[in-house]
Amino acid sequence: MKILILTARIPYPLRDGGSIAMNQTIEGYLEQGCDVSLLAMNTSRHWVEETSLPEMYSQLKHFKTVYVKTDINPLLAFINLFSDKSYNLSRFVNKQFEQALFELLQQEEFDIIQFESIYVSSYLAVARKYSEAKCYCRVHNIEHFIWQGLADHEKSFLKRKYLLLLTTRLKAYELDILTKFDLLLPISKTEEHFLISNKINNCYYLPFGVAESSPLPAVSFEANSCYHIGSMDWAPNMEGILWFLENVWSKMELESSDIKFYLAGKNMPQTLFAKGNARLIILGEIEDIVAFSTEKNIMIVPLLSGAGIRIKIIEAMALGKTIVTTTVGIAGIDAVHGEHILIADTAEEFIQQIHFCFEQPEKAKGIGKNAQQFVRRYFLKQKIYSDLIQHFIALK
Q: Does residue 325 sit in helix, strand or coil?
């Protein structure tokens, strides 16, 4: 099966959920024996030196990148106010990328062209015009949910009005463009249910998966520690962490003298580094995420807005970590509160659940073990992609 994948960034290095999910898709198709090609934007925001790419990229039938300047331009953003188009999406419209797609479609016949999110959906018309391939879209998020959430929590009146405008335009485009694909591949049940509720029924649930592996060796961790890891250039992560520090951590620091909170992730702003002290350890980007996670006790994911699935949560569950997160954070993962995970939606609930983990470590550890079993039952990568290819074959 010949598959061409279009991405709005090179899915490497694997430092955030989007890159990890896109990379896994390529890897999953290759492992199933598919003939995979990749056309990727190498953007100004997520620039990657191509000589640093791993061996997997040499297995691709075709691999082509196009530089695209996606930085937010205040003047263009202002001018966009007087149009009816989404500024979020317009930054990814590029003539050179369109030309590169045209040339690939002249060079090779594909069975499937997979669009990794609506950010490359503006090239659907080119794909339809010059190829007989089925066009599928991976739905990593319902994108307008993210902007709606940010608008709901924004205190500035003018900024909130602007975010609501972006949300309205993005929603209109999103609900229209998703009806034009032959198949949608939502990453979580939350996205699937939303699409079906809007009478968009051509869906196949494609979650993120973990590799089947031997149990991890026992590692001693810092008992009274909690941690968060996430990309700080993703607005919902930053929003959630600032809320957690102000409303939860500030109180816990006063209550207990022996607890520590470790904050890691790429693009950590100086404003967060400035908050660091002996008990609030701001690390920025780290090399070995698995080692970092296993050395710490409780994972904290204080998301207030967002969409899609939290890949870092699934990965931490696979490691047997006990996780405290919000209803938003666990969305799309059918884990049960108190059995596989701990859910807290207020500052008081976060404090209560973190204290529970520290004061009843054996019960907390049991929740982590249940989480590990849950992930290995429902999120095994090999089965996910084997079933997916069989579904593709059945659609022919």
A: strand
Spatial separation of the C-alpha atoms in residues 224 and 355, rounded to whole Å: 10
CA dist 268 and 289 (Å) reads 16
Distance CA 77, CA 28 (A): 38
- C-alpha–C-alpha distance, residues 359 and 339, integer Å: 17
Give residue-wise pLDDT tens across range 25-54.
999 999 999 999 999 999 988 899 999 999
Q: Residue 186 carries which side chain, given as an amino acid letter?
A: P
Architecture of domain 225-378 in this structure: 3-Layer(aba) Sandwich (3.40)
Mean pLDDT of 230-240: 88
Q: Which residue reads 């026992």 in tokens?
A: 218
Q: How far is CA 371 from the centre of its chain?
A: 20
Beta bridge pairs of residue 263:
228, 282
Q: Mean pLDDT throughout 56-82?
A: 78
Which residue did the predictor score with more confidence, 206 or 289? 206
Full-model pTM = 0.77
The number of helices, as runs of H, and strands, as runs of E, in the chain is: 16, 12
Specify the CATH number of the domain 2-209+380-395. 3.40.50.2000
What DSSP line would sit under 80-111, residue for residue? Answer: HTTSSS-HHHHTT--HHHHHHHHHHHHH---S
Question: Could you count the other beta carbons within 10 Å of the beta carbon of residue 70?
Answer: 17
320: left (phi over 0), alpha (psi -120 to 50) or beta: left
Q: How far apart, in whole angstroms, are the C-alpha atoms of residue 246 and residue 244? A: 6
Range list for CATH 3.40.50.2000 in the chain: 2-209+380-395, 225-378
Band of pLDDT at residue 88, cut at 50, 70 and 90: low
Q: Which amino acid is at 293?
A: S
pLDDT at 162 over 60: yes
Residues in the chain: 396
Alpha-carbon distance of 107 to 49, in angstroms, equals 26
